[in-house]
Amino acid sequence: MQLRSAIFLGSLSMIMILSSCMTNKKLTYLQYSEDSQAGSGVTVTPSAYRIMPYDILFIRVVTPDPQWSAIFNPQLGTGGSLTQESASLFGYNVDDDGFIEIPYIGKVKVAGKTLAEIKVDLDEIFLKYVADGSVTVRIVNNYVSILGEVSGPGRYPLTKDRINVFEALAQAGDLGDYSNRQEIQLIRQSPSGLIIEEFSLRDRSILSSEFYYVMPNDIIYAKPMRGRNFRINAPVLSLFLSTITTGLVIFRFFTN
Prior knowledge:
The chain is of the alpha+beta class. The protein is built from eight helices and twelve strands. It has three domains: 2-22 and 228-255; 31-48 and 142-224, Outer membrane lipoprotein wza fold like, CATH 3.10.560.10; 56-139, 2-Layer Sandwich (wza like fold), CATH 3.30.1950. Helix content is 34%, strand content 25%. Helix 1 runs antiparallel to helix 8. The longest helix has 28 residues, at 228-255.
């Protein structure tokens, strides 16, 4: 009886060890498949981000006339250095109707427009006040949030106009060993509402997807693999079962 129990526990321990192993296929990015073969070599041009309500814009008017500069540009304090905090503090909040309100000018419609389109509109508006001025427009809330099975979850700045999903995940220290690379979720705000897209980073077809490039305010969620807790605790359970098995074998030896 004890021998059969020892064999059973030993077999169970071996099954747990094998099932807790991570295969190379589950951890490898950009593998070929039937879907990715057709899209091999295809690139996608990222769409320009369109401003939405509750975004924050930082607008600066460059002009040689100090009087107009003082009127239209925020006073950043000693040194005049621009930081993320000061840009947010002196930025223009987009209201529910998609407008920002600029002193001495009034409300300007910005929602649904790209930064380039807003710059063209503002250049025309400020031309009435400053003949030789130039307008710079930036989005302040230019972040991506990365959650789930990653090494460093958090909110990270988008440091350039085009950042793909791999560059974004690299800022979070890459996906964890127990992250399901085949079911990555991306949550994106759009003018038509909330978009939730699920895609695989193990397949090269992601390279031709519209979600390959990250947009401001995107949320990337890395789902855990099924059986994650079992895999994490498998070594401890295996050691426990091995100890019991060894004890039964020793007990069987001395009782005989």
